[in-house]
């Protein structure tokens, strides 16, 4: 069952996410010796990345035991302003002591087939996956677009129904551009997922995703249903404006 936490504003969402990151990282390292996290892009996680790069998080989190992956990526080079990796590297990873060998960026500039195979191989090796196994991330950070997409799983695309691949590169018709994404089975096998949703422009779709009929082809974010884990929505007052209150 998903938990929805309504916070005053974007800054409060970032603080709550940073505190949860710290707690989940400490628990993962204590129980399993490492913390495996997958990041998303867009504007919503920017304040979170900046916060994690500052005190007390920069020196309190177990960065030396942290392994960083991405939930999705734009098909651009890492130096492009639209690169999800580039944003995280600039705002967070260049300021904390995560070993470079523990940062696994998605190849945004290579050929589609080779990029998806390469990232799939990285997941297989890191998580020691056998045939039919799914990686188990300790935390996946997700956002949600105004159309209900999450990661790079867009409405009405084959990414919504893909149940066999671990990583998918495909062209999103509405964007006329390729995206690379972890598939829903990978996302749904995570131990913890944090959805970060802010802004009044997302109020209507957030209500429909959380309270409307189940239509994952229309609202892919509805298809995030964990096999065995915790799903938390951190939303600001503006995004929560059309949710019922007790």
Describe this structure in words.
This protein is α/β, with parallel strands linked by helices and 246 residues long. It has seven helices and nine strands; from the N terminus they run E-H-E-H-H-E-E-H-H-E-E-E-H-E-H-E.
What fraction of the residues are assigned to beta strands by DSSP?
A: 15-25%
- What are the secondary-structure elements, in order, as H or E? EHEHHEEHHEEEHEHE
| Rounded mean pLDDT score | 96
- CATH structural fold name: Rossmann fold
Estimated radius of gyration? 17 Å
* Beginning-to-end CA distance, first to last residue: 18 Å
Strand order of the largest sheet: 1-9-8-5-2-3
Q: What are the segments in which pLDDT stays under 50 over at least 5 consecutive residues? A: none
Content-based structural category:
alpha/beta
Total domain modules: 1
Largest sheet: 6 strands, parallel
Tally the helices. Answer: 7
Overall number of strands: 9
Under the CATH scheme, which architecture would be assigned? 3-Layer(aba) Sandwich
The top level CATH class name: Alpha Beta
Binned, the helix content reads 25-40%
Summarize this structure as a short list of keywords or feature phrases.
single chain, 246 residues, Rossmann fold, 6-stranded parallel beta sheet, 3-stranded antiparallel beta sheet, 29% helix
